[in-house]
Amino acid sequence: MAKAKRQYVCQNCGSATYRWQGQCADCGEWNTLVEEAAETVFSAKHNLSKGGRTIPLETLNAESRMPERMLCGIAEFDRALGGGFVAGSATLIGGDPGIGKSTLLLQAAGRLAKAGRSVVYISGEEAAAQVRLRAQRLGLGDAPVALASATSVRDILATLGSRTADFVVIDSIQTMHSDLIDSAPGTVSQVRASAQELIRYAKDSGAAIVLVGHVTKDGTIAGPRVLEHMVDTVLAFEGERSHQYRILRAVKNRFGGTDEIGVFAMGEEGLGEVSNPSSLFLTDRSRDVPGSVVFPALEGTRPVLVEVQALTVRLASGATPRRAVVGWDSGRLAMVLAVLEARCGLQMGAAEVYLNIAGGYRLTDPAADLAVATALVSAFSERPVPPDAIVFGELSLSGEVRPVSHDALRLREAAKLGFSTAWGPNGMKRVNGIGVTGFARLGELVDLMLGRD
Ligand code: TYD
Ligand code: MG
């Protein structure tokens, strides 16, 4: 038999080389090559087409039971999950350090334990005393959560195997250590091996397991990308540490949609639920200030009103203008600026442009184009937008204003919060007494703002 060759496999893209390199030649990721035994060479002797057993195939319409759901009682959390945790499933929750992952999960664990579920909380980052202190501060001191500070997956599985658990938190997967793998905790192979064992435990035992994942600078969950493929649900916990607001977003969900969000505010007593996010994001709004526009964003089926703020500074010619954007896509900003310049005759090329979405909110809704364009025009011309107006619509490169989904939902939310006008695409219907002004092209809106005919 041929000697098994060693090879180095990139844990990010899966490409293999026979020599170790610091950077994967295929995907360009650094430090992702891990030594693995090479796959058996294809030969007549090692042929997968022989020696297997036939698997029974089933039909789609056979009887099947819906998996059991477990509501943690924090409505915003349950909503983001699409109706609570699923028994026998694995959930990965990622987020920046200090954003509140441990707090949120401890609160969920406490609620579930108080509701009579068997809950185990394993912290690899904090001592049990630290977690206990936090629980007491959160008013959960009397919740029957079984707590341990541990990092050995073997020990954790032995502990879990000796009892039945409904809900298990592993905080965090990067601190876990499998003694089958000879590398430090947090390395891709360790994270993958530890996660694999913990997920298998969840599937076998029927417990819902939640893995906390660290996030790298570019916002992806540290460790192999395969971690996201291994779990059933991936949640992202977002927000700016300097702001109170936190948004829990489903990025992947095998048991539900990925378009619902949960909104929280970090306070003295941990994370509070925010059932009316619009009023929260608009509390400190600067009215009658040029560059401020209210945009009705849609998160799943849920409208959230946010403030778009723009600032432009005209530079003496020759200097290179800065472009900075927080909470929106910078490529999209460049596109809106180009459309304003090329289709509406605004000379913004030489101006510095700053764009900010208030409250640490991150906008992904394409309907924000028109709101951003309006904020830029308002800042550039130093003319405020009427304070009782909301603005939304998608822009095309030709400067057309495109219709967007669910305009009635957006209008209804705005009406509820006291807005009386909406600027948007043509063809919107009046809702709840909100006056609508439709625009076919961005140029028409710019003319209105600048008082041009
Ligand atoms: P934590 O849950 O430890 O974050 P993560 O696990 O994502 O790293 O959150 C820690 C932050 O939250 C910390 O900076 C303090 C703050 N915090 C509050 O403001 N109020 C509270 O009641 C708690 C428990 C934490
Ligand atoms: Mg933590």
UniProtKB/TrEMBL annotation:
Tagged with keyword DNA-binding: yes
Alphabetical UniProt keywords: ATP-binding, DNA damage, DNA repair, DNA-binding, Hydrolase, Metal-binding, Nucleotide-binding, Stress response, Zinc, Zinc-finger
Gene Ontology BP terms: recombinational repair
SMART domains referenced in this protein's UniProt entry, alphabetically: AAA
Gene3D superfamilies assigned to the protein according to its UniProt record, in alphabetical order: 3.30.230.10, P-loop containing nucleotide triphosphate hydrolases
Entry annotated with the keyword Transcription regulation: no
Binding residues annotated for ATP, in chain numbering: 95-102
UniProt GO molecular function: ATP binding; ATP-dependent DNA damage sensor activity; damaged DNA binding; hydrolase activity; zinc ion binding
NCBIfam families in UniProt: sms (TIGR00416)
Protein name: DNA repair protein RadA
Species assigned in the record: Sphingopyxis alaskensis (strain DSM 13593 / LMG 18877 / RB2256)
